[in-house]
Structure formats: structure tokens, C-alpha cells
């Protein structure tokens, strides 16, 4: 039978086709890049990693093993089968088993977490066995194999808690300069109380347990003050302290990650983030193969980030609290990084929401501004255009230390705090970011203003200025790390930051 224009069968067929297309488009707009969308999976996966100033290990803390750990488990029924894990954007599902019949089975043991240089584990290479930096990298891969969850388009491993010590002993020779080995030198620019100031922390693990048959709780905590070894963590007021605790009702809602970070006289510069990292390849800031939560890598402009953030304490005036921080790596000619630290460059974009953070970019400090700003409508505004450039929307810009064709006065980034050169674009709340769902004024999202954010991170990151050598093809902006947390800079007094993060998701659009 031949259908003609106006035939009701043809009309309804077109309607049905349109409905199917719209349904498919709707589903495509909500594809999560993370293995645990919205942190709703009962069977949690959490990894822990600690770094020294230049994102290496250097030396393990006594009795702690390599500073890599994990808490990964499945929720089982009383007869041993794994509960169908669907906890879930829609939490009104009826559990298949009474909650009283559930138990937690861990995939990572205390012995796994205590592994340190010289101790064997499956997959450990000979060259890494007694090298603290390489050992930690391979231990992360091993822990990832224990925590791995099969999925499409690839398996995933864990949410990553990252802790970093900002002390830098410039006389140690441990950190390269822009990716090239550097000799020891004398510097008063970095905090360091003396030999050993770049140490790794004491780590306590509160293994996740099921309490009252309904609530799961666990956490990592500790201190950088090694002389407090054996004392209860966090008791001594003069000591540094870090803590991440997680809690969730079985089958209901999102995991709540509660963070706390305290600096001290000996450790005045500390960093603590919760990250979604690539499941393989280089994560932002590292030159080792990593494991993480991003089963699909988001690429500008086609992704958004959704999360709920509640800041209880800000960490003082020098706390650069990142509502969102994205990291990646590409060379100055636009080609992907390949592990050559002399030519690889880490790229970061960070939105700082601490209202005490001022703009260092101004008409009289152009060296702290990106070369140009691009509006959401695509208009390019050069930093010399004092009538139109949004100076107060930028805290600070710095170019890679290995860039060879910088245009005009430009600050270059700290050459030591990453294993390779780095580039930073640091943003502040400003009306210019409204089209992307970002904070538009100082105080948005700060203490007393808990919010759920829907951030068009992909669209914004697609329009930001990043350095590239003249005449080279634009780099693909593929992001291998997305994180939330704070970097508390050097202070004259101890500072405390405290916040809760839930509902974290990365959505491919």
C-alpha cells in the first residue's frame, strides 16, 4: 500500500518517530560520565592518595606504608548474594531484602592498605619495588583492581580523596623545575620547618560498617605531625588534622561526604579535595597511570557538573575554596600529553568562592590576567580593553613556565608544585558567569548558603583562554580530573575548613 501526504497512517508514524527522537535526545542529555552517578550506589568505592609538594611521595611515613588506601565494599544479603544495587536517583524503590538481613563485604583489607616499599603485591614491577614514587603509583593500580566495577564504556574504580602537603624543602632536590630535574637551592618563598618537612601523613582508617541495619558509615583521618604517632587523631590543638567521613542510609539518597582540614604552625599550607579522576591514563597534575571514577572523559563544551555543597567553615582568608576545579594535560603545541614531563603541561580551571579572595587581575596588573576573555556569545575582549574586560571575574592567571611565545607581560606559574609545567585560570564569582550557572556575586555558595549547583563547566571551559604555541591546531580540551575542595595557603594562625559534598555527578550533554 502506498501512503500519500496527509494520510493519517503517515501522520501518526511521523508523530511516533518524533516522540522516539525526543526521548532518545532526552536520554542522551543525561548520560553520566562517572560510574556512580550522584553518589547513590550503596556499594561504595573510595580511594585515598596523599602527595608531597610536587605531587610525588618522596618518603613514606613510618609504619604507614605507601600513602595510598581504599575502602571498597559490596552490600550482601544474609545468604551471601550481592544486593541489586539500584540506589538510585529514584530512591522510592522497595528493597529486595529486609534491611536487617544485609551485611557489608569489603574488597580491600587492612594489609592491602598498609602495603609499603619492599612489600610485594600482584603486578608490582621490579623497578618500583623500592622506589616510593613508583610504588605508590603501582599500588593505586592494584587497589583499583580490587575495587573495579564492570561497566560501559569501560570499568571504573573509586571516588578519590586527595590530600597534599604544601611544605617544600628546596634543599632536598626532590622536586623538578617545570618538569626537569633541578638541583637543591635556597629559598624563603616556601614553608618548611626543616629537614623532613615534606613528609607523608599518619593515616587512620575507619572501615565502613553497617549500623543498626540501616546506616553505613566510614572514613579516613589523620595528621601530618609525625610526633603525634600513637595519640588519638585531632586531639592536640596544635597539630594539623584532616578527616573525610561518609554516611548513607541503605537504599536511600546520596552518600554524604563530610570533610575537615586544619593547618598548623608546622603545616600551614594543606590541600584536601574529593575528585572524580580518569579510570586510566594521566589524571590532572600527575604523570602516572591512575584509577578513578570517570568512565568517560568529558570534553569541552559538552558536559555539565551537578553537586550539592554545604560549607560550614571556610579555612580563613587564604583558603582558595574551589567550587569546582577541572584539570587536564596537553602540550603547548596542542598535542596530548605522553608522560614526557619536560614538554607536558598540566592545565587547571578553578572557581574560587571564598569571598575573602581578591582579584589580582586588574588594568594595572595585566600580567595576572589571561590574554583575552570570551563572552558566552563568542565576543573576544582583549585584556588591554580596559572599558570592557571583566578584570574582577579573574583571581589570577599564570602561563606555563615552558611557554616560548608569551604575548606581553605574563606571570608564569610556580615551576615546582607539579611534576611538569602548569597553567592556571582562576575565576571569581561575577555576573559574567551567569550564563553557565556559576556564582555571580561574592558570598554565593559560601557559609550559610548551601546549594545544589548545575554548572555548565563544558561550555565555560571551552571559552577560556589557555596558552598555545602560534600556528598550532587547537588542543582538544578533554578533562581527566574534576574535584571540589580547598587549598589553605600559608597563614599566621591555624585555620579550619569544613564542608559537606553530596550528589556529585558529571553529565555528558
UniProtKB/TrEMBL annotation:
Endpoints of the signal sequence: 1-28
Organism the protein comes from: Trapa incisa
Membrane-spanning parts: none
Sorted UniProt keywords: Signal
The DUF7705 domain, residue ranges: 31-508
Listed InterPro entries: DUF7705
Coiled-coil region: none
Lineage: Eukaryota, Viridiplantae, Streptophyta, Embryophyta, Tracheophyta
UniProt superkingdom: Eukaryota
Name of the protein this chain belongs to: DUF7705 domain-containing protein
